[in-house]
Design goal:
The chain has 271 residues and is of the alpha/beta class. It has helices spanning 10-21, 37-46, 56-62, 72-82, 101-107, 138-149, 162-169, 172-191, 195-214, 220-227, 233-244, 248-270, and strands at residues 3-6, 30-33, 51-52, 65-68, 91-94, 111-116, 127-132, 153-156. The longest helix has 23 residues, at 248-270.
């Protein structure tokens, strides 16, 4: 099958890298378009046989599965432009949460689904969150799920938990990066630890942390328990978390859901 990507920004390019470095598809099976064409040609510099299209319509004419990787408010206008070029055997995949699978299905005459990626997929790791239309052909569903297994751990989810699941899977790497950088900055402020060296320490810790989880040595809970010696310094640090974190992550989810509902309101006016 030929695959297409409309929108080769951050997540579109992450998906392309994940597919082509993990053997999901061949370069010449991929058709891409970006509103700023130079971004699409930048990808072709890296993958010589990828097909760059000057219009999104050309992607649709050549691809069986089309990933729409544009901003939420651009999706419905784009699909309105493309629907006359689509047929029932094709499949549109959205990677964003504010438009439901049912709404996608009502906008185009083809199969639809949602696959929310993570930047961790670039390394052939991490989850992808899958929600398919009930009307999707069983063969297409199985093909997409198996394809996702080549670069991620595909997890089917109910539409109702899309946003909060995405906060962990897709936004989580940015949240954790922020917290770790804040720890490094505090080490610099408090003990004059060189920030470059602190970054090295942290990056090596993260890689090792991931391996411990991946290889099944620990769960998150048992890892914390193993590191925390009774009466030791780790416990003293965790006590600060208990006392000072409060509802920070609850408020974080309030903020992400607030932005989601803001986008939903704007999208509903387009429908």
């Amino acid at each position: 099958m030929n695959w297409g990507v409309i929108g080769t920004g951050n997540m579109g390019s992450v998906l392309i890298d994940a597919w082509l470095t993990n053997g999901v598809i061949e370069e010449d099976e991929l058709w891409i378009h970006n509103r700023t064409l130079t971004k699409a040609f930048d990808i072709k510099e890296k993958y010589k046989d990828v097909n760059v299209c000057t219009t999104p319509e050309k992607v649709v004419r050549n691809a069986d599965i089309i990933f729409v990787c544009v901003k939420p408010l651009q999706i419905m206008p784009l699909l309105n432009e493309l629907k006359s070029h689509l047929n029932a055997d094709q499949c549109i995949i959205s990677i964003t949460s504010p438009i439901s699978v049912t709404e996608l299905e009502g906008a185009v005459p083809c199969q639809v689904g949602r696959i929310i990626p993570s930047i961790t997929n670039r390394a052939g790791q991490g989850a992808t969150l899958l929600t398919f239309s009930e009307n999707m052909d069983k063969t297409m569903r199985a093909y997409l799920k198996q394809s996702c297994r080549l670069f991620s751990v595909p997890i089917e989810i109910d539409e109702s938990i899309t946003r909060v699941s995405s906060d962990i899977v897709s936004c989580g790497p940015a949240f954790l990066s922020y917290l770790i950088q804040a720890l490094i900055q505090a080490a610099n402020d408090y003990a004059d630890l060189d920030k470059e060296k602190g970054m090295l320490f942290a990056e090596e810790m993260i890689v090792g942390f991931g391996k411990l989880i991946e290889e099944g040595h620990y769960t998150l809970a048992t890892l914390q328990e193993k590191v925390t010696v009774k009466g030791g310094v780790t416990g003293a640090g965790l006590k600060v978390f208990d006392e000072e974190l409060g509802n920070i992550f609850y408020h974080l989810l309030e903020a992400t859901h607030g932005k989601y509902y803001e986008d939903r309101d704007k999208v509903s006016k387009q429908l």
